[in-house]
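anyone seen this seq b4? input:
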Amino acid sequence: MKVWDDLKLQYRIGGVVQKILFWNIGVSLIFLILQTLLPSVYALLLPWFSLSSNFANLILAPWTLVTYSFLHAGIVHLIFNLLVLHFVGRMFTTYFTQKQFTTVYFLGAILGGLFYLIGGLFFSVGSVLVGASAATMAPLIALAVYAPNMEVRLALIGVVKTWHIAAFIIVLDVIQLSTHNTGGHLSHLGGAFMGFLYIKLINQGIDLSKGIDNFKGALLRLFKKKERSPFKKVYVSKNKTTKRENVDSKDFARTVEQKKIDEILDKISRSGYESLTKEEKEFLFKVGK
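predicted toks r here
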């Protein structure tokens, strides 16, 4: 239970990149286990979560334009995408907000899926598409366009710039289009194009993450039921001093608790979650409920 509690706590206090990592791990492991132990159940569920190359299937399951990015073809495929996602997420959030990362990530998945579907009209792309590669390509290319000279130290290679990494991956995808996994490489290019487009729009003062927020708010207002507030009687307390003292004591307790939370979060950012004491972990878990 301690490991499970620690995982839940890390999910709560982690940023959006960490949450996406958790979802990728959870969904992929469920499907990989089903594929091994219950192949008939796996075969039944896969068409409802993976992206089919048949446009007709998209009409029946439009959500697969996103859900396919949480599935992976195997453990190696999953681990590679998790490493790249963690690496790209940390660099991207140096310049942009977590909301912007979420926007470009999922738009990259969607456009990558559309490139796969359109490419299927002209090439042999395979029956289904899975993997977070297209979604991960979007923030990577966005970062390379926004900060092309940002230096990154890679093991066994040394210091390179972000545009070097982006150019290498895109050239590799283009070369491999005619060899194998054509559908996967097309989706990568779709994600890359989304990242490029996102930054070009940012430079023109158009932030797609704000547009999505406005659209979501309009939908909520459209379906939100307007309720008339009932007539309420107002009672005036005669004992004003006691009431004010109670409020002040609660505010003081909240201030002390928030200060302790901030200190613990600072410690996590400096030394990592494992540096916390048992009492600090229990305190964070209690306030996170």
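The chain has two domains: 2-222, 240-288. Residues 240-288 form one domain. kinda curious what u guys think
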